[in-house]
TrEMBL record:
<keyword id="KW-0997">Cell inner membrane</keyword>
<keyword id="KW-1133">Transmembrane helix</keyword>
<dbReference type="GO" id="GO:0000287">
    <property type="term" value="F:magnesium ion binding"/>
</dbReference>
<dbReference type="InterPro" id="IPR045861">
    <property type="entry name" value="CorA_cytoplasmic_dom"/>
</dbReference>
<dbReference type="GO" id="GO:0005886">
    <property type="term" value="C:plasma membrane"/>
</dbReference>
<feature type="transmembrane region" description="Helical">
    <location>
        <begin position="279"/>
        <end position="301"/>
    </location>
</feature>
<dbReference type="InterPro" id="IPR045863">
    <property type="entry name" value="CorA_TM1_TM2"/>
</dbReference>
<keyword id="KW-1003">Cell membrane</keyword>
<dbReference type="GO" id="GO:0050897">
    <property type="term" value="F:cobalt ion binding"/>
</dbReference>
<feature type="transmembrane region" description="Helical">
    <location>
        <begin position="313"/>
        <end position="334"/>
    </location>
</feature>
<dbReference type="GO" id="GO:0015095">
    <property type="term" value="F:magnesium ion transmembrane transporter activity"/>
</dbReference>
<protein>
    <submittedName>
        <fullName>Magnesium transporter CorA</fullName>
    </submittedName>
</protein>
<keyword id="KW-0472">Membrane</keyword>
<keyword id="KW-0813">Transport</keyword>
<keyword id="KW-0406">Ion transport</keyword>
<comment type="similarity">
    <text>Belongs to the CorA metal ion transporter (MIT) (TC 1.A.35) family.</text>
</comment>
<dbReference type="InterPro" id="IPR002523">
    <property type="entry name" value="MgTranspt_CorA/ZnTranspt_ZntB"/>
</dbReference>
């Protein structure tokens, strides 16, 4: 008895989900299985008023093979699948929009490994998306389609995805701001328990998010200036608005990074001040103990001629000498500290 190969959350072709949309204002997505997808792709010329969204899992080894056999995606799409991490970008290739969108995983916990990539190919009738790990924005879009939200065009679906990604990023920024606010309150109250290293890690993740999630301006500017003929003017306008929303979120993220930097500098200043205080206390104790150590060392030598050895009040005389030198040394140390401060 042979066991079925692992599907990694997808069917045998690698498809996680598929939906068919009509180009009507109230058009809702209808779920498709793999057989229906193959049949529609063969007959797509007969359905000019329809388009499909097919979402695939690249962790399934059958995905790329199936895409090569049943679709005519540009080579730029397959090349982008094997590139290293790059910032979010949308560019035009063979009258097809190729998008690389970076998003966060469901269990995002401010770790660099919690950021993954989604690849998209968008043409007049087919939207192909592929990822290796489940992402927030994609599942948010999938839930919206399941609940009956109308998607009027392939570009509208891409815009919906970008806005879902912006919403996820806004939530991350809000959580980070709440954490930074709490740290600042503890800092002002003198109850700081957060270390600079943890703040540094959070700042590095924010920098990585900003670098990966910010759309590349050059490719996006070219697309908005000369969009494909099949892209409606309303879609171009909404795409421009979604990029502006991204810009606002990224500006908030940049200001948050600056706040974290200032908190790190304040923590470093407090740590330096505490170290200086500890060093001063150690210096004062050393200075105050110096006279008694010197005199005790001199009087502890087992040689003849030690002064006051035969005096009845010799001990108290030595105590008075030690106390006098100690007071003088303490006065000099504290005067020096006042001059520095």
């Amino acid at each position: 008895m042979q066991s079925a190969p692992p599907s990694y959350g997808s069917d045998q072709s690698g498809m996680v989900c598929g939906y068919l949309f009509g180009r009507a204002a109230d058009g809702k997505g209808q779920p498709l299985d793999n057989d229906a997808v193959c049949r529609w792709l063969r007959e797509r010329q007969q359905h000019p008023r329809e388009f499909v969204w097919l979402h695939y899992n690249l962790a399934n080894a059958a995905t790329e093979k199936w895409l090569h056999e049943h679709t005519t995606l540009p080579e730029e799409f397959y090349e982008s699948l094997h590139e290293g991490p790059r910032s979010t970008r949308i560019e035009l290739a063979d009258d097809t929009l190729i998008a690389v969108v970076n998003d966060v995983l469901h269990d995002f916990s401010f770790e660099p490994s919690d950021i993954s990539t989604l690849w998209l190919s968008v043409d007049e009738q087919v939207v192909i998306s592929a990822r290796r790990k489940p992402l927030r924005a994609v599942d948010s879009l999938r839930n919206a389609v399941r609940s009956g939200e109308a998607i009027r065009s392939p570009v509208a679906l891409l815009i919906h995805l970008l806005r879902d990604q912006a919403d996820a990023l806004i939530k991350i920024v809000r959580d980070a701001i709440a954490t930074v606010d709490k740290i600042e309150d503890n800092l002002l109250a003198g109850k700081l328990t957060t270390k600079r290293a943890s703040l540094g890690a959070q700042r590095r993740v924010l920098v990585r998010l900003q670098r990966l999630l910010a759309p590349e301006p050059a490719a996006l500017f070219r697309l908005l200036q000369k969009p494909p003929a099949w892209v409606a003017g309303l879609d171009v306008q909404e795409l421009r608005q979604s990029t502006e929303e991204f810009s606002m979120v990224l500006a908030d993220m940049a200001s948050l990074q600056e706040r974290i930097k200032l908190i790190q500098e304040e923590i470093a200043a407090l740590a330096s001040e505490a170290n200086n205080h500890s060093l001063f206390v150690l210096t004062v104790v050393t200075v105050l103990a110096l006279p008694i150590n010197i005199i005790a060392g001199l009087f502890g030598m087992n040689v003849g001629g030690i002064p006051l050895a035969q005096e009845a009040h010799g001990f108290w005389v030595v105590v008075a000498i030690v106390a006098s030198f100690t007071v003088i040394a303490g006065w000099l140390a504290f005067r020096r500290q006042r001059e520095i401060s």
